[in-house]
Amino acid sequence: MTESPSTTHNLNLLTALCAKLGVHSRYPRVSEQAECLLLDVSGLPPFAYNPSIIQTQGGLWMTYRYHFAGDFRTRLGICRISDGKAVRIQDLPIDGFSVEDARLFMFQMEPWLTWVEAKWEANFVNPKSVVKFAKLELPHNDNPALRLWQATRTYQPEFGGNDWSGIQKNWCFFEGYREILLCIFGTSPEQMIMKVDSDKAIAQWNTKPLQWPYGTARGGSILSYDGKLLHFFHSRTDTGRERRYFVGARLLESQPPFQTIAVSKKPILYGSEVDALTPAQRKSCPHWKRNVIFPCGAIQDGDGWLLSAGINDAACALITIKSNMLNL
Amino acid sequence: MSKLWVQLGRAGDIMNILPLLWKDAQQGEKPRLMVAAEYAPLLDGVSYVDRAIYNGPHYELDKAVALARETSKDVVVTQFNSARQHVEAFTRSQKPGTATSFQKDSWRVAGRLGEWDKCYPLIFDRRDKAREEKLLRSNGLIVQGKKKPLMVLSVKGQSSPFPHADLLRELVTLKFGGAYNILELPQAERLYDLLAIYERAALLIAIDSAPLHLAWACRQFPVFALTQDKPSLWHGSSWRPNHLWYCRYHDWPERAVEMLAAIANMETMRITARPFVTAWSAYNDKTHYKACPQALPVATGSCGRDSGNQLKDEKRHPFLKDVLRMAMQRATAGDQQISLAVPGVNISPKVDVILPPYFAYRIEKNVDGDRFVPIVDLFTATKAWWKDALPEIPDFVLNDDGLWSEGLRMIFQKRGAKDVTGAATFIK
Question: What's the topology of domain A5-325?
Fold first, then answer.
């Protein structure tokens, strides 16, 4: 489509203004929006992203996603974060054409994992995906180097079109009252929360949709907070000219039907054009995407939280969130 | 001898430069002005100008300038309504048409265009009360007791006749004949005697003629201005801050109903509780009926330049800076707040307690709830702030591509403005 003369005129002026002001982004890099832990990920595969975290087995563990073959396909890895450094790095033994966006959660005192398994025809035609979840186990071995995580009891829930007929992703599993497994299937056009037992939904609560101006709330991670549930989620706006991700938070009742009590008045974090990557690094990272902030995990951290999020599909960040940042 | 200004006529053109002469007089330099004999009575109403009379028609600029040069080495010609070669020869060799209207060009050739935004007043300080009372009395305007508000029509003119005068008169009479006392502007012994009528009127509807220019002498007087647009926008009178509604002649048939709505809404319209000036481009929307001192819907043709005549845009849009300048002219004190918005923005009363400068991204209201759109469509700052920032703001076109908004947001953020997203909502 040809731009109108006035749009071309404005674009030239805006480009010149950006250069003059030294502006490269609408929002500053995520590390300038909130305090981020310095993370040494030099041992991880290049450009690993979309991390999830969990406190278990006496340490902080982080999953991530990475491209292993120079194309769209990804695998999942896990490492321990020790003194800010990624150690005990291993691939998660999960089969699939492409496995993506792991989210860790605790259920009945044990670590569990949910992820997306995707497949498509050549050139990313006709993509399909399903959501799966499994229990994570770290069997004992006298040799610590051989002590590797394993995914056991894998389930593919049989509801919500999770049957390779379309694209399913961004489900959010969490442990609810009385140690039941719950899953937020969606927040719009109405909130649908399922009670899950292995691969079955044995109860369902539908409530009013979550009203959040910054796009449909999806995915994220849920924690208990002050007798309620605190949900960190992501959303996205797409104007044709610009696509941008946001992180918000909301409080839900901890009992069915899990109504939303409050939601952030404005985003906690904004996806940004800028990040820690150099221009050369971006160039060598074909899956780099601007304006992405993608939370996959959260844990309690003192009087706040530690949120793990992917940055621009090319990096991992652990971000400190304080209660005054929730904007509830 | 001191500087001699030459503006032989007509009355409107003379009144256009009187504010400049008044300004000079305030600074201790009583200016001299040469006018044609037929317009000399106009200067009876001002004390701050020494007049020099040219005894000939107003278009004999060459002869008048020759005469002027006999008495002054510093002759300033601001006149354009004469033979082109004379205009080009005498207006300091600067071609007319560079500014966006003949009025501003007059100031430009005097080297004073930069002062246009200061809105110097048009002062008639030698009014004749007896003559004014006679005029009022003869038009039945001195009445006791309750009376209907007065609407004044000025739809006759020589140099720029309005082609729809009869229709306008008919429409206004049909619509407002009951609520208003409608008076067609009478002849007065001196043009400025009409100020007595203006001071009693609720509004003036005026075509591009001397009474329209005279209305600037009553800055708070609501004016509905109809201005020339042929052969170009340059030939029409500039928008003035007291023009609550402004329309070019050839746009009027399409906008006539809107004009009636603007008059009907004039008394009830208020944007916020506090005296903000809220400006937006109304080139492509239907909100021009919002006519009050706080609302500044910049309608098609209000700016002498636009993206149509400057950039060959198919769809015309004003330039951002022109709209801002208009808003700054409308605002009076330096601490008065000016909001720049887009059509469809509904500003929450909450903004009344927010200290400017601030901006808000679009929150779009629709049946499914609110939706954030990454376009800033409310910018608020004081007049003084805008004035200071104006040189830094690029000459964006105020169109709907969002790019101007992005640039302006950068400047706002750089200058420490707050993000108050949520303080305004957008309804499609």
Answer: Tachylectin-2; Chain A (2.115.10)
CB contact under 8 A, B401 and A18: no
Q: Does B370 touch chain A (CB under 8 A)?
A: yes
Residues B281 and B384 in one domain: yes
Please identify among residues 204-233 of chain A the ones whose CB lies closer than 8 Å to any CB of chain B.
209, 211-215
DSSP-derived secondary structure for B352-402: GGSPSSEEEEEEEEETTEEEEEEEEEEEEEEHHHHHHHGGGS---B-SSSS
Q: Tell me the mean pLDDT in the region B135-139.
A: 96
Confidence of residue A197 (pLDDT cuts 50, 70, 90): very high
Tens-place pLDDT, residues A245-299: 999 999 999 999 999 999 998 899 999 999 999 989 999 999 999 999 999 999 9
A244 in contact with B at a CB cutoff of 8 Å?
A: yes
A10–B370 CB contact, under 8 Å: no
Q: Note whether residue B123 is domain-resident.
A: no
How far is B378 from chain A, CA to nearest CA, in Å? 16
Is A262 in contact with A226 (CB distance < 8 Å)?
A: no
Chain A contact probe: residue of B365, B406, B425 with most A CBs at under 10 A = B406
Of A11, A23, A246, the CB nearest to B403: A11
Task: Choose the mutation target among B309, B403, B421 for the interface with A, i.e. most A CBs under 10 Å.
Answer: B403
What residues have CB less than 8 Å from B317, skipping those under 6 apart? A6, B281, B283, B284, B306, B307, B308, B397, B398, B399, B400
**A189 and chain B in contact, CB less than 8 A:** yes
Of residues A163 and A38, more confidently modeled: A163
A28 touches chain B (CB under 8 A): no
Which chain B residues touch A25 with a CB distance below 8 Å? none
The last residue of a domain, from among B246, B267, B288: B267
pLDDT at site B93: 47
Per the structure, the complete domain to which residue B386 belongs is given by 269-428
Q: Where do the domains of chain A lie?
A: 5-325
Select from B152, B313, B165 the least CA-distant residue to B249: B165
Task: Round the CA-based radius of gyration of chain A to a whole number and report it.
Answer: 20
C-alpha B347/C-alpha B360 separation (Å) is: 10
Burial of B192-230, coded b for 16+ CB within 10 Å and e otherwise, reads: bbbbbbbebbbbbbbbbbbbbbbbbbbeebbbbbbbbbe
Residue A96: partners with Cβ closer than 8 Å, 6 or more residues away: A117, A118, A119
Mutation choice for B interface testing from A1, A8, A9 by most B CBs within 10 A: A9
Whether B121 has its CB under 8 Å from any CB of chain A: the answer is no
- Do B287 and B143 lie in one domain? The reply is no
pLDDT computed for residue A1 by the predictor: 60
* Other beta carbons less than 10 A from residue B166's beta carbon: 10
Using an 8 Å CB-CB cutoff, list chain A residues near B402: 239, 241
Instruction: Say yes or no to pLDDT of B321 above 70.
Output: yes
- At A246 the pLDDT is 96
Nearest residue on chain B to A265, alpha-carbon basis = B422
CA A192 to chain centre: 19
Per-residue pLDDT band at A157 (split at 50, 70, 90): very high
Do B98 and B136 belong together in one domain? no
Q: Supply the pLDDT for residue A114.
A: 98
Tell me whether residues B364 and A213 touch, CB distance under 8 A: yes
- Tens digit of each residue's pLDDT (9 = 90 or more) over A60-78: 999 999 999 989 999 999 9
Choose one of B267, B295, B317: the last residue of a domain.
B267
Using a CB–CB cutoff of 8 Å, tell me whether A19 touches chain B.
no
Residues B273 and B405 in one domain: yes
Cis? peptide before B19, omega within 30° of 0: no
Both tokens of residue B294?
Answer: 């706080």
**Number of other CB atoms surrounding residue B7 within 10 Å:** 28
